Structures are given as structure tokens and as C-alpha cells.
Amino acid sequence: MTKERIAKAIAHAGLCSRRDAEKLILEGQVILNGALVTTPATLVSAEDKIVVKGMPLAKPEALRVWRYYKPVGLVVSHRDEKNRPTIFDALPSDLPRVISVGRLDLSSEGLILLTTSGALSRKLELPSTGWKRRYRVRIYGTPTPDQLSSLKSGITVEGIHYGPIEAQLDRQQGHNAWITMTLTEGKNREIRKIMQHFGWSVSRLIRLSYGPFLLGNLTPGEISEVSKKMLRESLGKMLEGVQ
């Protein structure tokens, strides 16, 4: 019988994050099979009866995934220390509790994947997946073919090395240029830092794809569930062992 940590089970049921579940346990708010739980490391199975704050824990949500067009001005976080609006504040009220796959900064927009499964979210974020993320970037600058081509071998900026990037100039209009960039690492503010290294300022950054999942015709703030058929075809063995 498969067992997992009780804090993880509570999070999988969609009640709260794993960190918040650990806090509830330490506050004495969690009961397992009639006994008070004192450590988040307690192991449980699907047969165990868990009560949180006096209410029986619901069964975990079925695995589901959505494509979401994150608008500019929203934070990809369940809570923000600066009290800025988050994507989770903007999602439809009838949506189950979901977890984001990766992030986009406040000023960026485009594709964010959302899922009911924390385990799947972690799998999809791993660099070992080798998934490409494609972006359209508008900059103030006049990039040369040699500058863009140099990114194919990676680049080090302020002591941080960024892996190979495919960059193609789509259009130059005066001092503004549109570039399509494809990368696999997706380090924090990677594109913005590389553009700044060349002396170009980013005025718009849109994520078009994350692995096999495409932004498509979604408009800012729009959300669309991924069909089970596409999940099976796109993720295959990645779905094993997740819920």
C-alpha cells in the first residue's frame, strides 16, 4: 500500500499548501485515525481517516491541467508579501485548488500551466524534462545576427551561466525589435537579464509555449482545460505515480 507524508496528503486533497498543512499539524489541528498528529513526517495511506480543523479531509482532486494566459500585473503565487494581486485571485471561483507549473514575473505575460497535482507540477518543472519554453520578446534596441547567434552556445551574465538559447529576429521597426527566443532552463528573469546585458530594454515578454503545451488563441485572463487525451499523448510516462 502506497504511503506519503500527511502534510503532502493534505495538500493533494486541495485544502491548502504543504507548508500550511505543516503549520496546521504543529498547531494541533490535525487528527489521524482518532489520534493527534504531532509531526508532518507522519506517513498515511488512502485508507487512513484524516480530520483537519474538525472536518474530514476530502478525497484528492482528480488529475487535471489547464492552460492559462497570465496577464501583466499579476503575481504567480498563492500569497504575496507585498499584497499584490495574484493569478489565483483572478481565476474562476469554481476552479478547484490548483498549483502553477513554473512562473512568470509581474511584467511578463502568456502561458502558465495549472494543475491539481503538486507531484505533476514538480515533474514538469524539472530541467531533466528537456522541455523547451518559447517566448516573443519586444525590445528597444537593434540586435545584430551575430549577437543573437552567440546565444546558441550559452552566455554568462554577472557570474550566472545561462544555457543555449535559440534567438531569431522577427521584425525590426525603428529602434523596436521583436525576437522569438527558445530556451530550456528558464532561470529567474533569464531573458530580461540577457537582454539588459546587451543594452536592450524589454518592453513586452510573452510566453508562447511550455513543452508541448501552446498558448494558442487564448487571450489575457482566459483559461482552458487540457483534455485527458492530450495529457496522455503529451505526458505519457510522466503521469505515472502522480495524482
TrEMBL record:
Root EC class: isomerase
Keyword Kinase recorded: no
Protein name: Pseudouridine synthase
SMART domains reported for this sequence: S4 (SM00363)
Organism domain of life: Bacteria
Keyword field: Isomerase, RNA-binding
Family: Belongs to the pseudouridine synthase RsuA family.
Organism per entry: Candidatus Bealeia paramacronuclearis
Domain RNA-binding S4 span(s) in chain numbering: 4-71
Keyword Magnesium carried by entry: no
Gene3D superfamilies noted in UniProt: Alpha-L RNA-binding motif (3.30.70.1560), Pseudouridine synthase I, catalytic domain, N-terminal subdomain (3.30.70.580), RNA-binding S4 domain (3.10.290.10)
Documented EC number(s): 5.4.99.-
Any Pfam family: S4
Reactions it catalyzes: a uridine in RNA = a pseudouridine in RNA
Coiled coil: none
